[in-house]
Write a structure and sequence with these properties.
Structural class: mainly beta
Strand order of the largest sheet: 6-8-9-10-11-12-15-1-2-3-4-5-7
Radius of gyration: 19 Å
Helix content: 10-25%
Number of helices: 2
Distance between the termini: 57 Å
CATH architecture: Beta Barrel
Number of domains: 1
Number of strands: 15
Strand content: over 45%
Order of helices and strands: HEEEEEHEEEEEEEEEE
CATH class: Mainly Beta
Largest sheet: 13 strands, antiparallel
């Protein structure tokens, strides 16, 4: 009975919010992956991520809602570097991503990134776990997350290199389900160097896997209940361009019967780099 109640409370909330937040994560990834490259001295080698204020990327977004690997157009994302600011011990690149769906009003989000190793590695500033997994309606009073800079895209280690982005556990309250533990582990791996053709242009790209594993842990009738969510995201980045393509497959969440949509973004244009 309580198990049914938990499913009923979590399912509709997670479905809509996670669809939006997965898309947001991809948008932010483009900001992250694409906003990492400007102000280097002439003697420095060309990096992956442009960081000059005013650089603007336009992406077409498509969604696979049923898990058959058929992606249908869903809108556009425009990612723009609007400036820099000091954040903690690092100078942050300020990135605004505006998502315009085919139906509905546009939404905008601001993120902060920093760069290392000649702008081939990128860090993201997270002030809450929601910045990674998004706001899930009905989940509140989240505590225990340590704000700060986290590695996001590391290509300098070469193909086969791996790194930990985040390993965190927080506590929260879910409406109708009580106390919940949210455990999140995110890891990166450089998978390959390969050519990719996007919008009739071919890039020499590096493919990076960002593997996000989240567990919602609670109890029902005195028994532990765990809802695992695994969202692998693959991103292709090219020198002095940033993200040219990124894609996640549709994911079915155990227990709830929910399918998170697959999302694909492909670069249509870049200016100012």
């Amino acid at each position: 009975m309580q198990r049914t109640n938990i499913q009923r409370k979590l399912q509709p909330r997670i479905t809509m919010k996670w669809q939006r937040q997965l898309i947001l994560l991809l948008v932010l990834s483009s900001a992250v992956l694409s906003s990492c490259q400007q102000g280097s001295a002439p003697s420095e080698p060309e990096g992956i991520f442009p960081t000059r204020t005013g650089v603007t990327w336009t992406y077409n977004t498509s969604v696979d809602t049923v898990g058959n690997n058929v992606f249908r157009p869903s809108g556009t994302n425009v990612v723009r570097i609007v400036g820099t600011r000091q954040l903690g011990s690092k100078e942050a690149t300020v990135v605004v991503a505006t998502t315009t769906p085919l139906a509905g009003a546009p939404t905008a989000d601001t993120s902060f990134y920093a760069y290392e190793n000649n702008r081939n590695d990128q860090l993201i500033y997270l002030n809450s776990i929601q910045a990674l997994i998004g706001n899930i309606e009905g989940v509140r009073n989240i505590t225990g997350f340590q704000a700060g800079w986290y590695p996001f895209i590391r290509t300098s280690g070469g193909v086969g290199s791996t790194y930990t982005i985040l390993n965190a556990q927080v506590n929260a309250t879910v409406e109708g389900a009580g106390n919940v533990t949210i455990a999140a582990r995110v890891e990166g791996r450089v998978e390959a160097n390969e050519q990719i053709t996007v919008s009739n242009r071919t890039y020499n790209a590096t493919r990076v896997l960002i593997d996000t594993r989240i567990e919602l842990r609670t109890t029902a009738g005195g028994f532990p209940v765990t809802i695992p969510i695994n969202v692998p995201l693959r991103v292709w980045v090219a020198r002095n361009t940033g993200v040219v393509r990124q894609e996640s497959s549709a994911v079915r969440i155990a227990i709830t019967g929910i399918t998170l949509p697959g999302v694909r973004q492909e670069l249509q244009s870049i200016t100012g780099n």
